[in-house]
Request: fold
Amino acid sequence: MATIIDIKQIQIESQKVECQICKEKIIVDDNTGGSIHIIQNCQCKYFCAECLKSYVHNNVQNRLKDGLLKCPCTPKCNSYMYDDYVLKIADVKDREKYLKWKIETVKLKTEAKKNTKKVLEKEELDMLNNLGIKIKKCPKCCESIEKLEGCDHVRCPFCQTDFCWRCGESS
Reply:
């Protein structure tokens, strides 16, 4: 599983570093220290602020996979950037789009969980029916009902809805 990372601005005394995105050599001193960034929890070091802004912009425009933004050193690094950092370096439009993708991802994951539950319930009902146990869901309250014998007119014992066993239409 990938780790979530935070990118911090670094304080380095005068030296040359290479941006991992644009590969330009940058002399780091008191004037440029705030525009050089380093990822704290992985081995990826030194990114210039402009490259990170561009990286965030391009990834937000192209939609986020699973609502997460990977470290710029992908594929050698499988870490993700923290949301608060992404929001800090993104411009206003990118922030809005990033939050939109995050919300959409949560909705999709929630919907997927609901659908998985529905599929499991249907598989369970099919299995019981294959065993000769006649069970269907009430069309109104969705409770499982077992039919032992008799005609196809059924009354739900939970909500008292009358329905046809064959087609499921309530009367």
About this structure: The radius of gyration is 28 Å.
